[in-house]
Each structure stands twice: as structure tokens, then as C-alpha cells.
Amino acid sequence: MIALVAAVPKETELLRCRLAPCEVRNSGRRDLYLGTLAGHAVSLMHSGVGKANAASAATSLIAATHPDLVINFGCGGAYPGSGLAVGDLALASEEIYGDEGVLAPEGFLNMAALRFPLVQRNGTRHFDSYPVPGGLLEMARPLVAGAARDAGCVLAVGALVTVSTCSGTDAAARELSRRTGGIGENMEGAAVAQVCALYGVPFLELRGISNLAEDRDLSRWNLPRGMDIAQRGVLALLEGMEKRSTPA
Ligand SMILES: O=C(O)c1cccc(C(=O)CC[C@H]2O[C@@H](n3cnc4c(=O)[nH]cnc43)[C@H](O)[C@@H]2O)c1
């Protein structure tokens, strides 16, 4: 079983059209879609926007369907210098909490600096960062690159950053990318990754770039383009992944 999580229904329209047969149940006060997609048994849930929604949806999805893999996807903002433009694809090599911590006179102190682990499991303590295991990333990369090639867009692989306060200025975006090394940001990924780390479930994340993280200018955004390319990336992943495989 592969579990798919996106924030809002518009981000899953293309995939839900292809989910057959499609059964809708209730799980944890959210609709849970069950069906087959590209030969894989799939569960799909809309979390709502933000970390609290994302963590709660990921928890009920994992508890209800015991997936071998969770894929978080949707639109996202690209950081300056990432080489990404609107309509491009970003595949997470890791997810990082960008604003979990303390803003102190000496600068931002993250959870590692505060020595508060967010997850402790099997002797491993996770603070701000949730890396995607190398084998899983290398399996996913060429499949998503194929989707990017077909769509005539760029694929970047790198750290994605999860924020509660989105970067609506050039300065905020530059500072977050400098501090984290991230290529782009969103509002859910690290929370889904954290829950996956707690349950020991492999995690992948794909974002379609809907906007640049920059001085706020909504006329430059293209949400439908970001939502569409993210789903095309997920489809390519599912189509290329071995059926019934349990990713390492
Ligand atoms: O109105 C604004 O200026 C604004 C700035 C950033 C994000 C929003 C959203 O409403 C997006 C929420 C939704 O989309 C993802 N997303 C897309 N672009 C970004 C971004 O630049 N920074 C963070 N999140 C982004 C996010 O994951 C949410 O699901 C509005």
C-alpha cells in the first residue's frame, strides 16, 4: 500500500480521476480514498494546510492503511538561487523544519540547538531534519526526472523546508535558504516526515513550483501549474515503481 497526502483536494484532482475503483471512507474525521493507481494499492488523504493538519492526517493514514511508503506532494515555493522556476519540480532529499525554535538576539536557534528531539525511535533522535534514505531517493530520482523531461521542465533534488510563516519577502527567502541549505519551502512536508520517522514508514516528497519565495506578488503565482506537475511526478513514480515493493 502506498499512501498519498496533499493539503487540498485541488492538488489531487488528476490522481483521483485515475483511482479505480475508488472507495471513500471516513478516517480520523477526514475522507480516506482507497483504490488502485498505476497497479499499486493506494490510499489518499487531504490534510488541510499547515503542520498540525499534516501530522494529524499522516497519523490517521498510517494507522488506517499501514502503508509501505508515504508520498507528500503539492505545490511549493522555490528559493532564490535554487535554479527552479514556476512549473518546475522539486524532489526532497530531506525535509527540514525552518522556523521551529527560538529567535534569539544571537540569531535563530533550531531544535538541535535547543536539544529538544521531536522524535526518538530505536535509539535515533530526530531534531529539525528528516533525510530521505539514499536508496529510496535514487529509486525515485530517474522516475521523477522522466516526468520533468516529458513536461519540459526542470527537476531539482535537494532539501525542502517547512514553515509556518511563509517567505513573503526576498530577505526572508534568502535567510531561510542560507540557514537551511534548502531549495524551496512548503507548509506540511516536515510534519509528514516526522510522523513517518515515528512510525518507521519510508517517506518521499514532491513539490510542483507554484511561485518563487520572494517579495509577495500573487500575479506571478501559478497554482494550477504547480499542482499539475506535482501530480504528474507522483504518477511517474507510481508507474515506474515495482509493484508490491517495500522501499528500503
Ligand atoms: O498569500 C501569500 O503570500 C502566500 C504565501 C505562501 C503560501 C501561501 C499559501 O496559501 C500556500 C498554501 C499551500 O501551498 C504550499 N505553498 C505554496 N507556495 C508556498 C510558499 O511559497 N511557501 C510555503 N508554502 C507554500 C503550502 O504547502 C500550502 O499547502 C500564500
TrEMBL record:
Domain (Nucleoside phosphorylase): give its ranges: 2-232
Catalytic activity reported: futalosine + H2O = dehypoxanthine futalosine + hypoxanthine
Q: What is this protein called?
A: Futalosine hydrolase
Asked whether the keyword Endoplasmic reticulum is assigned, the reply is: no
A biological process from GO: menaquinone biosynthetic process
Q: Which GO terms describe its cellular component?
A: cytosol
Membership in a protein family: Belongs to the PNP/UDP phosphorylase family. Futalosine hydrolase subfamily.
Main role? Catalyzes the hydrolysis of futalosine (FL) to dehypoxanthine futalosine (DHFL) and hypoxanthine, a step in the biosynthesis of menaquinone (MK, vitamin K2).
Native source species: Desulfuromonas soudanensis
Q: Indicate whether tRNA-binding appears among the record's keywords.
A: no
Q: EC number(s) of the enzyme? A: 3.2.2.26
Q: What class of enzyme is it?
A: hydrolase
What GO MF terms are annotated?
adenosylhomocysteine nucleosidase activity; methylthioadenosine nucleosidase activity
Question: What pathway is this protein said to act in by its record?
Answer: Quinol/quinone metabolism; menaquinone biosynthesis
Ordered alphabetically, the record's keywords are:
Hydrolase, Menaquinone biosynthesis
Q: Which Gene3D superfamilies match?
A: Nucleoside phosphorylase domain
